[in-house]
Specification:
2 domains; seven-stranded mixed β-sheet; globular; binds NADPH dihydro-nicotinamide-adenine-dinucleotide phosphate; 14 helices; Aldehyde Dehydrogenase, Chain A, domain 2
Length: 480
């Protein structure tokens, strides 16, 4: 496997190297990855511009074949690549394998989308003129992706970018380069113009910023934190198209008429899946007072029963958090919660395991208010905060009382409440009797408020971001 960037059709080493260590076992060095230099990023941008002009005019079957082959290889190799992903990111093996398989599905889905690029025609308001309206690629797309879904997030951006005729410069998170390189090796083997797809390894503050400032980039799709998202929005100064998927503070409302076991299972899955490191995680659990005590008792029992351990060990349900820095931040949030007056019912401490890793016991806070910082800031941690409410109306108000707006959920047996919630929750995705996390690949994904900016990702809606509309007027009569 390569340990470098893929630029203009070649694997090229850069200057310094960064070590990639397994968060389940820091003695396990996954690899050392060389960082692309500014001149190499520039080469990638120039190659991308040239290749995009070729790709734009290629027959759709070439695109279909490339995307289908990438998707099928990812699905076929999901066990092997999923293990690599879990080794460097720390999610349990089954989640790593599932993520790679899902990434493959994004490619096979967008392979089919290449054949659905059908425009419109219109009559003119003037005589003897016809109008043709079509979508064209936006050009060179920079993709800046995070570590928490290192392959899936990149796939749901790279697949539509290529399907709709664009070139790609991909900057993955520097903490998960191994998955990125393995993924790029699959793309490299396809029949694509040299330079159409580029992988640039390096930090966000260096390479990411260079991409944001470059006038050769036509569009940027980013997933990550709100503060970085704000700096990326500055690319609009160059009139670069920007799509931002950022954090959230998702809430699950548990109503007095709920199926309690279902509510607990939705909460455990949504709050602690992927060690809580999901933008769709249910970090706020808003619970009706009538079921509060019973819900909390079962929730705490479930949180304590989780097997936390090495991501690749049989039976592990929760892996380590991704890094020492993330663990430090999580433990600080636990201290903050206590200092704000929340009651820590379980977990919240660092765990020792046979290997040295960043293990943390899933934490449940009760007696929290929606005004506390632990309920307002994205923690990205295995920490769930219970907020007690007295009515459905109070629950809905609390769900919407946040700067974010990615997902929300309700657990109820009432159809009218579920319908009211679905229509009044101010989030991009709403779940009824389901965890707040867990979405499909063929429908739009995104949020409101500080969670998202720009057109939606995924499904057919991705076309909006990765294309631009052209309206052509054609005189249908012979020139005089
Ligand atoms: P960041 O937002 O810092 O990183 C996301 C991506 O942006 C990475 O590829 C990063 O590169 C890159 N980046 C960082 N700085 C810049 C910059 N100035 N210009 C361009 N690109 C940049 O998230 P972190 O990984 O540091 O995670 C911090 C917090 O962000 C988490 O605790 C969580 O709250 C949130 N987050 C949310 C995600 C979501 O899905 N909603 C995903 C990931 C994080 P590099 O890492 O290589 O420096």
């Amino acid at each position: 496997m390569q340990n470098s960037s893929f630029i203009a059709g070649d694997w090229v080493s850069g200057g310094s190297e960064v070590e990639n260590r397994n968060p389940s076992d820091v003695s396990d060095l996954v690899g050392s990855y060389s960082q692309a230099g500014a001149n190499q990023v520039e080469t990638a941008l120039e190659a991308a511009c040239a290749a995009q002009a070729i790709w734009q005019n290629s027959g759709l079957e070439q695109r279909y074949n490339a995307l289908m082959a990438i998707g099928q290889e990812m699905m076929t190799r999901s066990a092997e690549l999923g293990e690599l992903l879990s080794r460097e990111e720390g999610k349990p093996r089954a989640e790593g394998v599932g993520e790679v398989y899902r990434a493959g599905q994004f490619f096979t889905y967008y392979a089919a989308e290449t054949l659905r690029q059908i425009g419109d025609t219109a009559d003119s308001v003037r005589d003897n003129i016809e109008i043709d309206i079509r979508r064209e690629p936006v050009g060179v797309v920079a993709i800046i992706s995070p570590w928490n879904f290192p392959i899936a997030t990149a796939s749901w951006k790279i697949a539509p970018a290529l399907a709709f005729g664009n070139a790609v410069i991909w900057k993955p998170a520097n903490i998960t380069p191994a998955s990125a390189v393995a993924f790029a090796e699959i793309i490299e083997r396809q029949n694509l113009p040299k330079g159409l797809f580029n992988l640039v390894l390096g930090s966000g503050s260096a390479i990411g910023r260079q991409l944001v400032e470059s006038t050769k980039v036509d569009a940027i799709s980013f997933t990550g934190s709100v503060p970085v998202g704000k700096t990326i929005a500055a690319a609009a100064q160059n009139f670069t198209k920007v799509q931002l998927e950022m954090g959230s503070k998702n809430a699950l409302a548990v109503m007095d008429d709920c199926d309690l076991d279902l509510a607990v299972s939705c909460a455990l899955n949504g709050a602690f899946g992927s060690t809580g490191q999901k933008c769709t995680a249910s970090s706020r659990l808003i619970v009706h007072e009538a079921v509060h005590d019973a819900f909390v008792e079962k929730l705490v029992a479930g949180a304590k029963a989780f097997k936390v351990g090495h991501a690749l060990e049989e039976g592990t349900q929760i892996g380590p958090v991704v890094s020492a820095q993330q663990l430090k931040g999580n433990l600080e949030y636990v201290d903050l919660g206590k200092s704000e007056g929340a009651e820590l019912l379980c977990g919240g401490d660092r765990l020792d395991r046979p290997t040295e890793g960043y293990f943390m016991a899933p934490a449940v806070f009760s007696n929290t208010s929606n005004a506390m910082r632990i309920n307002r800031e994205e923690m990205f941690a295995p920490i769930a905060c219970v907020i007690k409410v007295g009515s459905y109306e109070e629950a809905l108000h609390c769900v919407n009382d946040t700067a974010f707006g990615l997902t929300s959920g309700i657990v109820t047996r009432s159809l009218s409440r579920a319908t009211h919630f679905r229509r009044n929750a101010r989030t991009g995705c709403v779940m009824v009797n389901l965890p707040t996390a867990g979405t499909d690949y063929h429908v739009p994904f995104g949020g409101r408020g500080d969670s998202s900016y720009g057109p939606r990702e995924q499904g057919g809606y991705a076309r909006e971001f990765y294309t631009t509309v052209k309206t052509a007027y054609i005189a249908s009569g012979d020139p005089a």
